[in-house]
Amino acid sequence: MVYELLPSKPQPAEFVxxxxxxxxxxxxxxxxxxxxxxxxxxxxxERIDTILAESKLDAEFLALAIQDQQxxxxxxxxxxxxxxxxxxxxxxxxxxxxxxxxxxxxxxxARLADSPLLQWFLHVGQIDQVKIFAKSTSHRxxxxxxxxxxxxxxxxxxxxxIAQQPECETTRQPFDLKQxxxxxxxxxxxxxxxxxMHFPIDWVLLRDAVRTLVKGTLCIRKAGLKQRMPQEPxxxxxxxxxxxxxxxxQRRAKDGKKSRKAILRQMKKLARRVNxxxxxxxxxxxxxxxxxxxxxxxxxxxxxxxxxxxxxxxxAIKQAHERIIGERQVRNEDKILSLYDGxxxxxVRGKAGAEVEFGNKxxxxxxxQGLIIDYHLHRxxxxxxxxxxxxxxxxxxxxxxxxxxxxxxxxxxxxSNEALLKAYGIQSGLCPRNPADLKERLADPxxxxxxxxxxxxxxxxxxxxxxxxxxxxxxxSIEAREQACGWAVLSHxxxxxxxxxxADKVPRGRVxxxxxxxx
Length: 519
What we know:
Layout (H helix, E strand, L loop, with lengths): L1 E4 L11 E4 L15 H20 L1 H12 L9 H24 L3 H10 L1 H7 L12 H8 L4 H15 L23 E10 L7 H21 L10 H17 L6 H33 L7 H30 L19 E7 L2 E14 L4 E6 L10 H11 L6 E4 L6 H10 L2 E4 L4 H7 L3 H10 L1 H14 L8 H22 L8 H11 L1
Parallel strand pairs: 3-7, 7-8
Antiparallel strand pairs: 1-2, 3-5, 4-5, 5-6
Helix pairs in contact: 1-17, 2-3, 2-7, 3-17, 4-5, 4-6, 7-17, 8-9, 8-10, 8-11, 9-10, 10-11
């Protein structure tokens, strides 16, 4: 494979980088009979492999990786460039395969080592050996590209999938599809991407803080730096666990409210003691790190974990005091929901089994054929009706798609959105909140059909969130969740394209003959 790329930094006009990469010779896949599930998965990966080769997304991926990783092509050696190109080639395919299989990093690497199909798809299987990367490398793949670059990759795939109206019957559709993909209708919906966190009970935050501080203190003491303590660090964990069990037991007990207040006072006192010991060990680590075997990176990780909790502990103690002892409400914007992720929102949707959700709102726009053409993970909990305009700006302004109809539920409906769609020349399919207006719109058969089709978007959201992305999301920061959404959208769209019917195979010579006759 040959990649012709422009440099990531300004260079002379005549400087053009030609990067070459020769994938290893892939052994043929074994012939397996009797397993329908394996046959379907094999056809899926073979089809995606063909789409990736035809779309040349690996070259686009490589160019964006050079920019994101700030690689100076002029200073890198030929060996380094070959290794970098191979890394990006495997990164793209490994991330797609892991999303489609729904496996965690450790399980995916173990499955890869034992699966000829995945080895074939990733180009890691060779005639004489199979060289597999570790789970840490698989985790590194997730954060290799920035969220903005992943959006460019997704926009590029959508642009390549859209076909112009065929001039003759022999015109070949993109990726050998039987029917052209025409994006003139869009179906809008939102959902909540939950995070990996427990229900944010106030006194449980104190337990989390003590646990993190004790573990950090143990790491420092294990390295040989010790400060005087009245008891072993693990004994503090035992004391906090006893208090947590006592707090849980007082929920329905007589005079339980008074007992809970007394137990919380003990928790506050214990949390402050552990905090003081952790701060003392942290000061010793900053002064005497050179005496230990800890590297600078290891010391930095320990310091960041301890400082993150020490900084938030006073606010967590105050929050628990206000709600349990003072019996006063705390505003949502002032609450600490998680000590480890400050970008979590409280989303009240009132759905069955999910009255209140903790995470980030995700907006998705799909085409009639199931491709996700726009997505955005919001850092703030914004009203659904305010999400239509930014999405239209991305679809029409950036992607240059000729949208004619937009369908959405009543949460998106507003008079301003109706005027906005009219200004863009887009027919409104927003479900009115007024029953009389809804009845009037349903008199049109086309409106009824569109609203009925919009119901399938709920299933699309469930497939994307629960099957491909994973629910809850594994990322522990908003940036990690944005990257995970970008990879999930790319994998989902490739999965949709791979399952679409293909055109009947026609000999290549006959196609050229028909093209000459049509000309």
